[in-house]
Design a protein that fits this description.
The protein folds into two domains: about 120 residues, no CATH class; about 100 residues, no CATH class. The chain is an alpha+beta fold. Helix content is about 25%, strand content about 25%.
């Protein structure tokens, strides 16, 4: 009897990068005011300002590659050529199973990126790719509560179809956060939804983004670069306009 093949699902420990987008600032509580203040990191990080670069690359690998752990590893030159081919594929439409790029010698992206960190960083693009995105225009316009509710519904639908939404997290004009993450899982709660996120700033564990139906607002808990609380979300890298 024929059995339906299960879709390939994103697994954080297999399908994310082993290295981080390093923080330029260290965020510490101010004893006098209780507010979080930024202090420049010393020494300065060598690999930073690439959050949009890394989330795009993670999705490119998920959409367009098949890892073949039983095949022998190849040279760094060959791996660089494969990485460039992956990055040149469609940003929005996954490859069909028979059309995916084979990455030999590794079981997944985390293992591959641990062994080939230098090559991946070189081929995925510089920090300018995080600044010059056509979708950035959206943050200068107001984010209504109805817009955020529609966004949440669109994200739930995308995840149901095994797509990985890329989000721009922003507080404008304050820019206390201006960051990119990928969603890969969700749970419905009494208050709304809780999304599992790959955050390029934190390769150790998934983050959690919440959406509350009553307030129609997204909330990101406090972490190493964000004091926690409400923010606005734009669903990007999904059309020619975004």
């Amino acid at each position: 009897m024929d059995t339906e093949k299960k879709p390939h699902r994103f697994e954080f420990g297999r399908d994310s990068f082993a290295f981080a987008n390093e923080l330029v600032w260290e965020y510490l509580p101010d004893a006098a005011t209780g507010k979080t203040v930024g202090v420049p990191r010393r020494p300065q990080p060598e690999y930073s300002h690439r959050c949009f670069v890394l989330v795009r690359a993670v999705r490119q690998f998920f959409y367009h590659t098949q890892f073949a752990v039983n095949q022998p590893e190849v040279s760094e030159t060959s791996y660089r050529r494969l990485i460039r081919a992956v990055m040149a594929r469609s940003r929005r439409i996954p490859s069909q199973a028979g059309e995916k790029i084979i990455i030999p010698g590794f079981a997944g992206l985390r293992e591959f990126s641990r062994a080939n960190e230098k090559a991946i960083k070189a081929e995925c693009g510089g920090p300018w790719r995080s600044y010059f995105l056509r979708s950035h225009w959206r943050m200068v316009l107001p984010f209504s509560r109805s817009h955020q509710a529609r966004t949440a519904e669109a994200l739930v639908a995308a995840l149901g179809n095994n797509y990985l939404p890329i989000l721009h997290l922003v507080k404008f004009p304050a820019l206390s956060i201006n960051h990119a993450i990928i969603l890969f899982g969700l749970r419905e709660t009494r208050e709304g939804w809780e999304f599992d996120c790959y955050d390029p700033n934190n390769p150790a564990a998934p983050e959690r983004l919440r959406f509350g139906r009553a307030a129609r607002t997204f909330i990101l808990p406090a972490n190493a670069y964000w004091q926690g609380g409400e923010l606005d979300v734009s669903h990007i890298c999904r059309s020619w306009l975004f």
